[in-house]
Design goal:
By secondary structure, this protein is an all-alpha fold. The chain has one domain. Helix 2 packs across helix 4. The radius of gyration is 19 Å and the shape is globular. The two termini are 15 Å apart.
């Protein structure tokens, strides 16, 4: 039900990847009502910047898909694609385009998935999960110090000193100067310990496919992509919620979330309470955007 057909090859694949990540990010950010996070009834500048980051990097998404195609054809080796340079350029472009507000935990996974989907020629995120995972593993195994260092230095250059300092504190930035000592996988694992968006490229547990399956199940249940995204968001943050909030979530689910006035009311009330208490789950926006984008690629539509 959710699979698509690749017709005509490379150009269509590039277009589908671009559309999926633009639509998925838009849907993940604006879907309402997500208590404690961005949604279209509580828009702020960060909401716009998140979506604009994806618009800013379209040129580099296309380059990533082209790299994947060339490696798949055997025209280039995976170690020759200069992924660090590609990521650095994309981050700098997002920084310029979006008034110095850049989200590496959104930008970087999008580029990695664009490359991996193209390299594996993935038609279905669910059915082809194994070969997509192998393609991600191949990219994440890159350990050239020049590529690693470009990413680390660029994080500081685009004013993401929080991420840069986190890497320095972990000791990984010092190891990056030793050829072969650090892989992209290790770099993003360290960042994923604080920024959930990077969990989407963690292939050890590969939870992203579980999340995509769950989102598609909600999509089938509600026949509504927006309600499905809200449902998955609530699943993702439930373990982080204070105990008192869970009854609101249970009641909202019981009443089909935004498909009923009572469900929407519960979500609205919970959102107000979170905001009054300064409770925010915005850090899950990037992860939700990646998952939603992959579900859109799979066939989910607004």
């Amino acid at each position: 039900m959710y699979t698509h057909i690749i017709r005509g090859g490379e150009v269509l694949l590039e277009t589908l990847i671009l559309k999926a990540f633009m639509e998925g990010t838009h849907l993940a950010v604006y879907a309402s009502i997500k208590p404690g996070s961005h949604h279209r009834l509580r828009l702020d500048k960060e909401s716009w910047f998140l979506v604009s980051n994806v618009i800013a990097i379209t040129e580099y998404m296309i380059q990533a898909t082209e790299y994947g195609e060339r490696v798949r054809r055997g025209d280039r080796a995976i170690g020759d694609i200069e992924i660090g340079k590609l990521i650095a350029r994309a981050l700098r472009e997002a920084y310029r385009w979006c008034s110095r507000r850049v989200y590496p935990s959104l930008v970087i996974p999008i580029l990695l998935y664009s490359l991996a989907i193209s390299h594996s020629n993935t038609e279905s995120i669910i059915r082809d999960a194994g070969k997509l995972r192998r393609s991600l593993d191949l990219v994440l195994s890159i350990n050239k110090w020049r590529e690693i260092k470009q990413i680390i230095d660029t994080l500081r250059g685009v004013n993401r000193n929080d991420m840069y300092k986190h890497l320095v504190a972990s000791g990984i930035s010092h190891l990056a100067g030793v050829e072969g000592a650090v892989t992209l996988n290790e770099l993003f694992t360290v960042l994923g310990s604080k920024w959930p968006g990077f969990i989407s490229v963690d292939t050890r547990e590969y939870r992203v496919v579980v999340y995509v399956k769950k989102l598609l199940e909600y999509y089938k249940r509600y026949n509504d992509a927006e309600n499905a995204v809200v449902a998955l968001y609530l699943d993702m943050i439930q373990a982080k919620m204070p105990g008192w909030a869970r009854k609101y979530v249970e009641e909202a689910f019981r009443d089909n979330l935004m498909h009923s006035r009572s469900g929407a009311k519960r979500l609205f009330e919970l959102d107000n309470m979170f905001r009054k208490q300064g409770i925010s789950y915005n850090e899950y926006s990037e992860l939700l955007a990646i998952i939603t984008s992959l579900a859109v690629y799979e066939g989910m539509r607004i």
